[in-house]
Every structure is written in C-alpha cells, then in structure tokens.
Amino acid sequence: MFLGGRKTRCHKVRGMLSEYIDNRLDSEDRGVVERHLEICEACLNELESLQMTVQLLNQVPFMPAPRSFAIREVDTGRASIFDPQSLRWLRPATAFATVALVLLLMLDFFQVIPHDVGTGGGEVLVEPPAQIMLSPTPEGGAYTTELRGDEPAEAISEPAPAPAEKAPTEDVSSSAAGWPLRQIEIAMGVLVLALVALMFFVRRQRRRWSRL
Amino acid sequence: MEEQELISRSRAGDVEAFNLLVEQYQRLVYNLALRMLGNTETAEDATQDAFLSAYRAMGKFRGGSFKAWILRITANSCHDKMRMARRARVTSLDTLLEVSGELPLENNAESPEDYVLRRELGRFLNEGLVRLPEDQRLALILCDIQGLSYEEICQATGSSLGTVKSRLNRGRARLRDFLLQRRELLPAEFRQHK
User: Fold this and answer.
1) Is B60 on the interface with A (CB under 8 A)?
2) Which residues from A are below 8 Å from B34, CB to CB?
3) Contact between A16 and A33 (Cβ < 8 Å)
4) Is residue A85, in this structure, part of any structural domain at all?
5) Buried b vs exposed e over A141-178: b needs ≥16 C-beta within 10 Å?
6) Are strands A143-148 and A123-125 parallel, antiparallel or unpaired?
7) B137 class by beta-carbon count within 10 Å (0-12 exposed, 13-18 middle, 19+ buried)
8) Mean of the pLDDT values across residues B77-104?
9) What's the helix, strand, coil split of chain B in %, to 5?
10) What does the alpha-carbon distance between residue A132 and residue B110 come to, in Å, rounded to a whole number?
C-alpha cells in the first residue's frame, strides 16, 4: 500500500520535473516536488540527469547563417510559377488524360464506338437507296428503269447508278454518326506527352530553384 | 525601421522591406532548420524555402508574433524536406549527421583529448536530437537551444500548452536515455548519473 502510493507520487513528480527545471510550476506544485525530492533518491537522480540534458542543449552553439537568404524579385515571380500549390492540378490532370487515353484505345480496340472510316477525306461506299429492276414497257421493245423500294415506283429514262457506286462523304448522312477516333487518340496522346514533359520540367525547375 | 512597419510594407509586396525581416531572422530560422535536419545543405534549402513561403503568405499573416509565425513556416519547411528525404530514401542518418555541432570552448587550457571529447559529444548530441520524434525534437530545439518561452512554442508549433509540456518532458527524458548510453563522452560531472 505504502509502496504503491510512493510509486504514484514518483510518477506524478516525474511528470512535473521538466516544468520544475524551467521554473514553470506554481509555488504549491513546486513545494510538492521539492518535498518529494528530499525523500526520493531515484527522483532526485532523474531530476539531475534531466538538468544535465538541458544544460548540454543550452550549450549547443548558435551557428551564423552561411549566406544571405534575402529573396529577389525574380525568385518571387519564379516561385509563383513553380509553387507546389499553383501546380496542384498538374498531376491529377496528367493521370486523368492518361486514363482517358487508355479507355479510348480500349474502346477502339473492341470497336465499341462506331468508327468513321472516311477520316482520310476520301469517299465511302454506300448501298443504293432502293432496288433497281428492269421491266419491259407495255409497248414492248425498250426497257425502262424502275425503282422498287419504299417509294412508289417511278419510271425514269436515265439508267440508275451501279449498286456499289462511290459517293462523296458529305452527301451521305450515315457517315456523320461515326467518330474521328484516330484524331482524338492522337490528340490525347500528344496531350498526355505534353503534360508528362511539363511535370518533369517543373520538378527539375523546382529542385533547381530550391537550391538557389 | 520598426518591425511592424516592415511587416506592413512586406504585405504590400515590398521585397526590400521583407529582406530586412529576412536579415533579422535568418540566423534563427537557419539554426532551427539545421538542428531539425542535421544537414547544412538541406538546412539552407529549408531556410530559403521558408522565407519564400513566408513572402508569398504575408497576406495571410494576421498579426501576433512574427518570430513565432516564421518559425512555424520553417518547421513546416523542415517537415517537407524530411518527408521528401523519406520518400526518396536517399538521406540516411549518416548524411543527416554531418553537422559538427561542436560545443563551445569553455577555457583556453583545453587539452587535445578534451577537445576531441567535446567535438565527439557535440556530434553525439546531434545524433540524439535527430533520433527524437519530430514533434519532440522541435519542442526541445525551440525551448532549450533557441530559448523560446512555452507560449511562443505554442504559437510556433500550433499546439496547446499541455501538448508542449508533454513533448518537452518526453523529449528530454528520451534524449537523456540516449546520452547515457555513452556516458564516457559526457563531461565528468555528469558521468555518475544512473
């Protein structure tokens, strides 16, 4: 019981020794510590060893500054460019662009997005709008061209175009639904490369700048 | 020129006024960085970073102790340097301990043996400091090397008074335990401590 009480008292006093050394205790706590130190050699030793540590730290010399740390106008300007805060967006933007590019390449590979094959500026092959049949005229002899599709049949005097005739892209409405994937992929690739290069450049500049 | 006026002018973007503040505080800031990082080159970098950050953040300075404010920025700058070193895994403890930390000469009649011991003790003390947890190290440097009051340490670390007291208590005990591992290096009057 007595030993337990003493242990508790030692623990409490040791918790106050640092403040005792720095003269930060009020008179009441100071009295408690001093009365305990008179009867407890272990705590007295603890106090002396802590005082020794503080004394040694007090002797650590204050070194002169090796150079002037004055800042220059140009440093402040450069600092704002390569400030870690102002370029916070760079890393997530690069990551986002890279992920988008990979996604795009995958969609392209699995042909999820309709592909615009006429991206070379040429022409596309289109199906004829309706089926063309040749039928004899009631007068007999000559053949006229007849269109059979959704539209009512209409005789025309000119021959219909060949089934797989090439038509210009701008005339065909279905080509507008395709995506110029190649161009998008190339643009995204260039963007990712530019962002990565910028990141390396900024890192290098920041390191160089921090050494100034 | 008064410090308050220099601060006002610096807040308005006057670099020259800010540099007068730099001149006034650079020794304090450099020594904090040096003892926190234990390496002269990194300490210089951290000091320069701290002043640049301070210049850019002058608009956010809301009065109070400029000394505590600049020391807080320095502590953050040191923290960044340590984190970068940990991430790069290039800074071993050996490279951190290049500071000689030589303790000052007490009398001119020092023998060569005593000189070597004193030098060795300074290095050992630095090693002990660098091995402390960062928060305890900061509290010890500010209090026992730079002589700041508890209240100033609270402002410089952004911690409560209770936290500062506790860090000092634990930091001193920890450093003491480290120093007693090689008591032959300690001054004669300290060697008998158990």
Assistant:
1) no
2) 63
3) yes
4) yes
5) eeeeebbeeeeeeeeeeeebeeeeeeeebeeeeebeeb
6) unpaired
7) buried
8) 66
9) 75, 0, 25
10) 117
**Residues B69 and B143 placed together within one structural domain of the fold:** no
Count of pairs with CB atoms under 8 A, one residue in A, one in B: 113
Instruction: Look up residue B156 and give its amino acid.
Output: A
A192 φ, ψ to 5°? -60, -45
Residues B105 and B89 in one domain: no
pTM of the complete model beyond 0.90: no
- Say how far apart CA B122 and CA B187 lie, in whole Å: 11
Picking from B77, B99, B121, the residue at the C-terminal end of a domain is B99
Provide the pLDDT confidence category of residue B106 given band limits of 50, 70 and 90: low
Same structural domain for residues B82 and B114?
A: no
Query: Could you tell me if B117 and B150 are in contact, meaning their C-beta atoms sit under 8 angstroms apart?
Result: no
Contact with chain A for residue B172, Cβ under 8 A: yes
Q: Which two tokens stand for residue B116?
A: 């070597």
Q: Is B35 exposed, middle or buried (0-12, 13-18, 19+ CB in 10 A)?
A: buried
Which whole number is the average pLDDT over B70-80?
Answer: 95
Whether the per-residue pLDDT at B111 is higher than 50: the answer is: yes
Residue range of the domain that includes B42: 1-99
pLDDT at A67 > cutoff 70:
yes
Helices (H) and strands (E) in chain A, counts: 7, 5
pLDDT of B76 strictly over 50: yes
Considering only CB atoms, which chain B residues are within 8 Å of A75?
52
Which of B19, B31, B101 is the closest to A70 by Cβ? B19
Shared-domain flag, residues A24 and A51: yes
At residue A60, the pLDDT reads 87
